[in-house]
């Protein structure tokens, strides 16, 4: 299924996935900032969010003073991220770009963020390796990757068919978002159908979008990172970070030994 089309179509209403998007922006920014500064020291740091979407992580990190650049496969999403940044008086340069081929020079960033289950849109080992090789290339020596995915080890054991509905209450009424999952015969990939029920007067309008994911367990994801030349791979649980998903940290080896273990 078309990942770019999925997010282009969702861009104007992606915030409705959250009960309170602004609160989520701030909370996720704080969680990623804590991991970033624990590894690299006090900022501000130059950060690439290479699957920035409408800015959920980028805006939170920029508000904390980091110099953030946002890229995403979806032009509609990065356009909205830029608008959201302008409304908040934040600096957030953006570009439409594929994480497998980034338009930046080597060693351009202190950190790369790839959050909110973006990497699993890549459905082959070749594509995952390409994306992580690009991540390593644009990181400075000693730089940090922050990557989050769903907890796929657990999900592969249970293979859920749906996710519980989320309800957002706004000035125009309640929006209900829920998901159906359709697992492929290989047992690893699945099609996700996202349904949003939007209030329209006394009735509801239904919007449906679909995308495909590869449910990579944590150790396999960390293995791909190590294949790409990243080191110090470590998963951090949501209970420890306050982030909505498990977060993998990994480092590009540095000239003085940092990130070499």
TrEMBL record:
<feature type="domain" description="Methyltransferase">
    <location>
        <begin position="47"/>
        <end position="143"/>
    </location>
</feature>
<dbReference type="InterPro" id="IPR029063">
    <property type="entry name" value="SAM-dependent_MTases_sf"/>
</dbReference>
<dbReference type="Pfam" id="PF13649">
    <property type="entry name" value="Methyltransf_25"/>
</dbReference>
<dbReference type="InterPro" id="IPR050508">
    <property type="entry name" value="Methyltransf_Superfamily"/>
</dbReference>
<dbReference type="InterPro" id="IPR041698">
    <property type="entry name" value="Methyltransf_25"/>
</dbReference>
<protein>
    <recommendedName>
        <fullName>Methyltransferase domain-containing protein</fullName>
    </recommendedName>
</protein>
């Amino acid at each position: 299924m078309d990942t770019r089309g999925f997010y282009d179509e969702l861009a104007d209403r992606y915030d409705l996935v959250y009960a309170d998007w602004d609160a989520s922006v701030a909370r996720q920014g704080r969680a990623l900032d804590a991991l970033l500064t624990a590894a690299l020291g006090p900022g501000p740091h130059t950060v690439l969010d290479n699957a920035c979407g409408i800015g959920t992580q980028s805006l939170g990190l920029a508000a904390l003073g980091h110099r953030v650049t946002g890229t995403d496969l979806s032009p509609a999403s990065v356009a909205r991220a830029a608008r959201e940044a302008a409304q908040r008086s934040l600096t957030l340069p953006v570009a439409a770009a594929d994480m497998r081929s980034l338009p930046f020079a080597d060693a351009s960033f202190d950190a790369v963020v790839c959050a909110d289950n973006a990497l699993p849109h890549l459905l082959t080992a070749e594509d995952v390796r390409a994306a992580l090789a690009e991540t390593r290339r644009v990181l400075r020596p000693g730089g940090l990757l922050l990557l989050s995915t769903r907890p796929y080890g657990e999900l592969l054991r249970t293979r859920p068919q749906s996710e519980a509905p989320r309800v957002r209450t706004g000035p125009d009424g309640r929006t209900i978002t829920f998901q159906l999952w359709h697992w492929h015969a290989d047992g690893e990939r699945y099609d996700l159908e996202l349904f949003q029920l939007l209030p329209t007067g006394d009735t509801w309008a239904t919007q449906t979008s679909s995308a495909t994911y590869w449910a990579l367990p944590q150790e396999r994801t960390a293995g791909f990172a190590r294949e790409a030349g990243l080191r110090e791979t470590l998963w951090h649980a949501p209970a420890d970070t306050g982030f909505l998903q498990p977060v993998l940290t990994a480092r590009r080896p540095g000239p003085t030994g940092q990130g070499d273990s």
